[in-house]
Every structure is written in C-alpha cells, then in structure tokens.
Amino acid sequence: MSLDQLTPGSWTIDATHSSIGFVARHMMLTKVRGRFSDFTASIEVADPPQNSTVFAEVQMASVSTGEEGRDTHLRTNDFFDVENHPTMTLRSTGFDSAGDDGDDFVMHADLTIKGTTLPVDFELEFAGVGQDPWGGTRAGFTASTTINRKDFGVKFDAPLETGGVLVGDKVTIELDIQLVKA
Fold it and tell me: What sign does the dihedral 9-14-17-21 (CA atoms) show?
C-alpha cells in the first residue's frame, strides 16, 4: 500500500477502533500486556505524505492490565506518577520508507513520558484506505517501538532472590490505529 492513498488534510483517530498498548516482562519470565483506554490524536496528512504530522495524547490514568492492584501501582510515582504527569504525548518529527514494498515506514517522533521527552522510532505498517458504510474515508496503521522505561524516569526496581528484577527495563509500545478523514 502506498501512503499516496491518503488524501491530504486533517484526519482524526477513531478511538473505538484503535488501541494503544504496551508489553513488559514480569519476573523476567512472562510478558504482561496493558492498554490505555483514553487517548486522542490528530493527523495532518501532507503532500507528500512523508511530510505529515501526528500528535497524540494519552491519559495515563486510563491504564489497564486486567489487574486493578497492578493498575493502581502503575499510576503511582513508582511508575507513571499520574498525579504530576497525567499525560503521555507523541509528536511526529518525520517519516521514512523502510522497505521496498511500500507498506513499511519509520515514524520518527518525540515521546514524552513522566515529563521526559526523548526521540523514538516506530516501525509503522500502513494497512491502506477504505470507504466506510456511512460515506466516510478511513485508514489503518500499526506501529511499534521498544523503549527503556528507565530513560523516561520510570525506575521502579524490585530485585528477585533468584536474580533479575520484577519488571523488565524494556517496554514495547504497540499502536493499532484507525483514522477517519475529517
């Protein structure tokens, strides 16, 4: 699929058909998945599309891992410090092709978590554009990146007696996004 299928102009996220999630290791053994249920994004598609801009904001209090005790702990200063840093933001800084098939791209972005902003690169796959049953135009993307949570001030550590730590340092952020042409 070519990004040229995207009509220039404003696009918004369809939050009911999108997800923002993360994956982290627990006890160095298994992966725990979580998601955020409250987020917004605006996308301004340019001509050419590689010059487009994305801005997204996630309400950190909306974190859910399926275990309320863990979710409550994630909202504390040990992790997200929701009281002082209620949002995570992403602002794109550019796009590059990442393959010959035209579907894969890299989205360069500034990611802000817990008051720290760092550059990150998301592997982005464009799924295409389609018409919805109501006469609107939609587009789909998936994207992921892996960050070190400690780089963003999320430094909670609980060493295990058997070695390792309770929560791994690497966290994968996963986006599955459906856009609607405004």
Answer: positive
pTM of this prediction?
0.89
CA angle 164, 79, 118 (to 5 degrees): 95
Count structural domains, the chain.
Answer: 1
For residue 58, list its beta bridge partners: 39, 88
> Any residues with CB less than 8 A from the CB of 68 and at least 6 apart, and which?
none
- Cα–Cα distance for residue pair 103/3, rounded to 1 Å: 8
* CATH number of the domain to which 80 belongs: 2.40.128.110
Listed in sequence order, the residues at least 6 apart from 27 whose beta carbon sits closer than 8 Å to its beta carbon are 160, 164, 166
Q: What angle do CA 181, 51, 123 make, to 5 degrees?
A: 85
CA–CA separation, 160 and 6 (whole Å): 49
What are the structure tokens assigned to 115, written together? 């008051």
Q: In terms of residue numbers, what domain contains 137? A: 3-181
What is the residue-level pLDDT of the chain in tens, covering all 182 positions?
567 788 899 999 999 999 999 998 876 777 889 999 999 999 999 988 889 999 999 999 999 999 899 899 999 988 899 999 999 999 999 998 887 666 688 999 999 999 999 999 999 998 999 999 999 999 999 999 999 988 998 787 766 566 655 677 899 999 999 999 98
